[in-house]
């Protein structure tokens, strides 16, 4: 039997590991919805009542972003409401299903700074009709993500500022202490629904004050103890 592909396979997406010559091959990108109380409220939810819920982006959605240079992201097609959401991204070095809190914590390889770019108008239309969110979330260039800081090198404890500015005006400014579900708890809940694997990324949710950008806007997104990325919308 021929091993030739009838079409070319999609290349693997890699993210560099800070301070090494190694790279992280991305398998799957999981996203946590409304994991900061104030963001849940601004989107019309009661954060005290809801368990974390999950959706996915394809690894082809990733735009590798650097701590040391400006990254261009194109304004998304098919939308008039292109919005930012800054997030702490967790990279898994181990996997499994129905993990304990201890196993979930041990599975974390490192961290990155990411943006869950959203076509908010398309997401709103899908939500109104009870349809999946892919059109609003899982589109090309919707996941700018920095290189990965290994856990042993990151100065990230249970707290740390997470922020985003547009054209030097602060828009999102919160702290990881405001996560409704901790990183380990998110991994536990996710592992109850999916078998996790090394190479998976988890975008852990965004704080309040998400909002739109237009062509020419410059975005600075940062997680204290991990790093900062700068992007320009083209």
UniProtKB/TrEMBL annotation:
Q: Which InterPro entries match?
A: Fumarylacetoacetase-like_C, Fumarylacetoacetase_C_sf
Any single GO molecular-function term of the entry would be: metal ion binding
* SUPFAM superfamilies registered for this protein in UniProt: FAH
Q: Which residues form the Fumarylacetoacetase-like C-terminal domain?
A: 29-233
State the UniProt keywords alphabetically: Hydrolase, Metal-binding
One Pfam match, given by its short name, reads FAA_hydrolase
Q: Which PANTHER family match?
A: ACYLPYRUVASE, FLUTATHIONE S-TRANSFERASE
Q: What is this protein called?
A: FAA hydrolase family protein
Organism whose genome encodes this protein: Marinomonas piezotolerans
